[in-house]
Design brief:
Helices cover 75% and strands 3% of the residues. It is built from 25 helices and four strands. A two-stranded antiparallel sheet has the order 1-2. Strands 3-4 form a two-stranded antiparallel ribbon.
């Protein structure tokens, strides 16, 4: 009898075990299963195992060149973002900047709009008939270099992604104890020397994390090279074209290219993790850095650097908002102003606006719930099963969005579960793609909450689940909000996954912008882009109001 009781205790189930298995089942169905189906479609044709489509890819220089193109533009864009973003974060955290709250909001807006909107904006300014191009030619007779191709992609991605470096490094600088900087200064290490010998090494783990994020975002982006790349083809464009070519039937080749993309990004991710492991340490700022007021020419230089960089990055969005109120005829902007673009936008694709909030809102609710549960499992119940869940949650972080979309289409376009063409598959894709942000921010804040708080509640009669939701979750609020706002803004600006999964009934604002840009309806595209920008601004202001924070860092 004693042995039987002991066995029952050994196999005793609690609510968190059920949650662990439920979350694992969700990932198995909507992530592992689609990726397996993707792999099978790439290597099994007519019931026979084959590597024909992999050989087809690597036998043509055209395809291999696209990989080198993607690496070239992604590496260059990453380096440029580091050169711009690290000094910007340093100046912002170390010194008093005029209008710093507004400056940060604009920086975030620069990063949160869809990259292809930046490409479209720069085409309006520096394209063959762009405002700046035409103006300089008329005034000085000088024809500016073409924005199309490598240079254009590099410009757009660099100005789009440097804010991510800024946000990450700003967060790291907040954790540096001011006494370390004072000690360095007392030993004669100050100014630029201190920046490179003290500040950069202390921020290195965060800089490496930001480097990976920027590289992955640049490597996976397909909207920008599709619009502005012209003859400069990148790998994500090939993935899309391989699966949705005009021939349109060779899905096995598209699946093979997708598998290659997964392998490439996985190697990059593992390489970054290995390098990052060499720089692991923790910081706790007992005396946080206090901003100093510069004077004279130094104050002018620092303020000018910050505002010039940010306004150059934000200028295209301002111009797009301006053009949304101009009279247009296709790609041409006419003299005079009107609201015709907005009227046409609501008439032609009015469902795009409610879809953005309904589909995006549903995805965000699921993201928050799952992220909070996964964060708890990863931190408080760190066993083998939950480590698998935590690892699976990061897999979409390294897979290009187009690959996720293709895998979901392959997995759920046949019975017993047909989801292709529905709003449900859009929600699932957005949850899978954007949940890592909220998980990581929730994990970071949960690690700072002592377990004794929950144990005290349980000892007073509260259940484990009740103690978590009533005690721990409210204490995690700021971390959850930080991750949720980033998830939300990336959800409403998602293109690479959504473009593969959408139809006219599930079109969103980002897709409506892309469709109208590709059709040459620039006025309508500008109207949609303005609505999306305003939505982003309102989201950020609400976050800052609710969290009572004047600054956002990741």
């Amino acid at each position: 009898m004693t042995t039987m009781k002991a066995e029952k205790k050994t196999f005793k189930w609690d609510v968190w075990k059920v949650i662990s298995l439920s979350v694992l089942a969700i990932y198995a169905l909507f992530l592992i299963y689609p990726l397996i189906k993707l792999l099978l479609q790439a290597v099994i044709v007519d019931g026979q195992f084959t590597l024909e489509y992999f050989q087809q890819f690597f036998s043509k220089n055209y395809y291999i060149t696209t990989i080198f193109n993607s690496f070239s533009v992604s590496i260059c864009a990453t380096l440029v973002t580091l050169v711009i973003g690290i000094p910007l974060a340093y100046f912002y955290q170390m010194f008093e900047i005029k209008g710093k709250t507004l400056l940060q909001i604009i920086i975030i807006l620069c990063s949160m709009s869809a990259p292809f909107i930046g490409a479209y904006s720069w085409i309006l300014l520096l394209g063959r008939n762009g405002l700046i191009t035409a103006g300089i030619k008329d005034l000085f007779g000088i024809r500016l270099p073409s924005i199309y191709g490598f240079n254009g992609i590099l410009l757009v991605l660099s100005l789009q992604l440097f804010p991510l470096v800024f946000l990450y490094v700003s967060g790291a600088l907040k954790n540096i104890d001011n006494s370390l900087l004072e000690a360095a200064e007392n030993m004669g290490c100050s100014g630029v020397k201190r920046f490179f010998k003290v500040v950069i090494p202390l921020c290195m783990p965060t800089i490496l994390a930001a480097t990976l994020l920027v590289f992955m975002r640049a490597f996976a982006d397909f909207g920008t090279p599709l619009l502005i790349g012209e003859g400069y083809k990148t790998f994500p464009v090939i993935i899309y074209n391989a699966y949705f070519s005009e021939a349109g039937t060779n899905h096995s080749f598209g699946a093979a290219v997708s598998v290659i993309a997964i392998l490439i990004t996985a190697v990059i991710f593992l390489g970054q993790r290995f390098i990052n492991s060499k720089f692991q340490f923790t910081m706790n700022a007992l005396h946080p850095i206090e901003r100093k007021q510069l004077h004279g020419w130094k104050n002018i230089v620092v303020n000018l650097y910050c505002w010039i960089v940010v306004m150059i990055s934000f200028a295209p969005q301002i111009y797009v908002m301006y053009t949304s109120f101009q009279k247009t005829s296709g790609k041409l902007f006419m003299p005079g102003y009107s609201l015709d673009s907005y009227k046409t936008a609501f008439e032609n694709m009015g469902r795009a606006i409610p879809n953005t909030f309904l589909i995006g809102g549903a995805a965000l609710i699921i993201v928050i719930i799952l992220a909070v549960l996964i964060a708890y499992l990863a931190v408080r119940r760190n066993n083998f099963l939950n480590k698998i869940i935590d690892t699976l949650s990061m897999v979409p972080y390294i897979i290009p969005g187009s690959v996720v979309g293709i895998a979901l289409v392959i997995a759920f376009n046949k019975r017993p579960l047909v989801l292709t063409g529905t709003a449900a598959i859009m929600v699932i894709a957005l949850v899978i793609r954007r949940i890592p942000y909220t998980i990581r921010s929730s994990v970071a804040v949960l690690q700072q909450i002592p377990m004794s708080v929950e144990e005290a509640a349980i000892s007073l009669g509260s259940s484990k689940l009740s103690a978590f939701f009533k005690i721990t979750v409210p204490m995690m609020a700021n971390g959850i909000l930080s991750g949720a706002i980033l998830s939300w803004i990336t959800i409403i600006t998602e293109l690479s996954t959504a473009i593969i999964l959408y139809n006219l009934n599930t079109i969103t604002l980002t897709l409506a912008i892309y469709v109208n840009v590709s059709r040459g309806s620039y006025g309508i595209a500008a109207a949609y882009a303005t609505i999306l920008t305003c939505t982003t601004i309102i989201s950020l202001l609400l976050f800052m109001k609710v969290s009572k924070s004047k600054e956002i860092t990741f």
